[in-house]
Amino acid sequence: MDDKVLLKVRSLNYVHWIGHYDPEYRVSSNVLERAKAPLRVKNPKRVLSKIDNTFTIPTSPKTDIPSGTKRVPVVPYKYSVTFFTKKNFEQAKASLQRAGARIITSLPEDKRFIIDTQKIKKDPAEFLSKISQIHGVKRIDDIKIRKV
Description:
Blueprint: H1 3-10, H2 29-36, H3 47-51, E1 74-83, H4 86-99, E2 102-107, E3 112-116, H5 124-131, E4 137-144
Antiparallel strand pairs: 1-3, 1-4, 2-3
């Protein structure tokens, strides 16, 4: 964006902030905490019964669950990586694979990949932080199980 475009964008009444979107902002601290202590799964076919014991809050297994906390089960080792643009999405596939992520699903209409990190040798939180630095990453989220 050149200076002329920047001035034009700043003058728009619905623009509240212009600046660098730091990679740290792209991954919730809750997601990073759960990545450090993922649910250990021996038998993946029985994972759903174990997942009911994980929550979006608290951030660690030792934390007491606050009263009124909504239980939202998450799938261990699986993350949603969303991109700002379709071009960012298309260019990022190779970067994700080079980093060691296994792409489970590509969702071009949502500009999003679902990745599996179970076989990553690095610290999971460090790995997610590295993924957040790929150009165009908007956010990285847990995969939550929605009950219908």
